[in-house]
């Protein structure tokens, strides 16, 4: 998430506008395509903390992108299900005809998703809604409890500012290439295993080949760094 310390005057290359009382920046972001080439597009992100509609979390948006979440299935419907994360986030999961299911390490069907089960969801994240490409029930090696380091979002609470582990020296918020597919899924899985409780709403490949996994719905961490071997190496606000 982009913290309130970024509401000072923005440097050349970004434009600040006011929408609904909040400050927003328009930045240039590079997105990968299925052919492996890169395209440049504009993305909108929230500079100040913003509440996710219908949930208890904060939000920093870049538009729908590859991500995911993990939590306990709280309800099931014909079109999908609801997740409640260990940090108290409510996530709406939409299923499609192409959604793939696993239970543990075995292939499964949609019937494997039942109330009370732990589920890891990967797909396209749009705020607190995920259109699932893959649902893993009772995932192995994935966190189902809030890490002692994860700080849940609380309305009115100040943002937590701290760094853990290794943060790329050249890292700047808003830079990098937004990725999807296998790389995004592996980075999302690694980030959620280390810091469960939030919602991953995008994965960015950095210039040094590592990944920045953007995490919303919690006070901290908002940026989780994953190396080229898909191991978590650091986190910050």
* Biggest beta-sheet profile: 5 strands, mixed, barrel
- Spatial sequence of strands, sheet with the most strands: 4-5-6-10-9
What helical percentage do the residues reach?
A: under 10%
Rg (C-alpha, Å) = 17 Å
What does the average pLDDT come to?
A: 78
Span between termini: 7 Å
Q: Report the order of strands and helices.
A: EEEEEEEEEEEEEHEEEEE
CATH class of the domain at 66-137: Mainly Beta
Using the 3D structure, state the CATH architecture of the domain at 66-137. Beta Barrel
Total of helices:
1
Count all strands and give the number: 18
**SS-derived structural category:** mainly beta
Shape field: globular
The CATH topology annotation of the domain at 66-137 reads as OB fold (Dihydrolipoamide Acetyltransferase, E2P)
Q: pLDDT below 50 for ≥5 consecutive residues: which ranges?
A: 1-61
Strand portion:
35-45%
Strand and helix layout:
Blueprint: E1 15-19, E2 22-32, E3 38-46, E4 65-76, E5 80-84, E6 90-94, E7 100-103, E8 106-108, E9 118-126, E10 129-137, E11 151-152, E12 163-165, E13 177-178, H1 181-194, E14 199-205, E15 211-216, E16 218-220, E17 223-226, E18 232-236
Main attributes of the structure:
single chain; 237 residues; mainly beta; OB fold (Dihydrolipoamide Acetyltransferase, E2P); 18 strands; 6% helix; globular
In brief, what are we looking at here?
The protein is mostly beta strands. Helix content is 6%, strand content 44%. The protein starts with 14 loop residues before the first strand and ends with a strand.
Question: Explain this structure to me?
Answer:
The protein has 237 residues and is mainly beta. It has a domain of 72 residues: OB fold (Dihydrolipoamide Acetyltransferase, E2P), CATH 2.40.50. The protein contains 1 helix and 18 strands. Strands 4-5-6-10-9 form a 5-stranded mixed barrel. It has a two-stranded antiparallel ribbon with strand order 11-16. The longest helix has 14 residues. The chain is globular, with a radius of gyration of 17 Å. The N and C termini lie close together (7 Å). The N terminus is likely disordered.
């Amino acid at each position: 998430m982009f913290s309130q310390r970024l509401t000072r005057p923005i440097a050349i290359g970004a434009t600040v506008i006011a929408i609904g009382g909040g400050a927003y920046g328009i930045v240039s972001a590079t997105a990968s395509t299925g052919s492996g080439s890169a395209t440049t597009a504009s993305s909108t992100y929230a500079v100040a903390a913003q509440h996710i509609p219908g949930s208890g979390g904060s939000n920093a948006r870049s538009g729908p992108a590859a991500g995911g979440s993990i939590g306990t299935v709280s309800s099931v419907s014909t079109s999908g299900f609801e997740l409640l994360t260990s940090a108290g986030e409510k996530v709406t999961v939409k299923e499609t005809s192409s959604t793939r299911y696993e239970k543990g390490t075995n292939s499964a069907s949609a019937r494997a998703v039942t109330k009370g089960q732990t589920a890891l969801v990967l797909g396209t994240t749009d705020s607190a809604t995920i259109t699932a490409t893959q649902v893993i029930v009772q995932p192995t090696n994935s966190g189902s409890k809030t890490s002692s380091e994860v700080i849940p979002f609380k309305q009115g609470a100040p943002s937590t500012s701290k760094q853990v582990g290794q943060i790329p020296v050249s890292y700047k918020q808003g830079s990098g290439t937004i990725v999807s597919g296998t790389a995004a899924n592996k980075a999302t899985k690694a980030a959620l295993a280390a810091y469960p409780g939030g919602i991953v709403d995008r994965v960015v490949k950095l210039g040094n080949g590592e990944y920045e996994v953007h995490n919303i719905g919690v006070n901290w961490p908002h940026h989780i760094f994953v190396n080229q071997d898909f191991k978590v190496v650091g986190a910050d606000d």
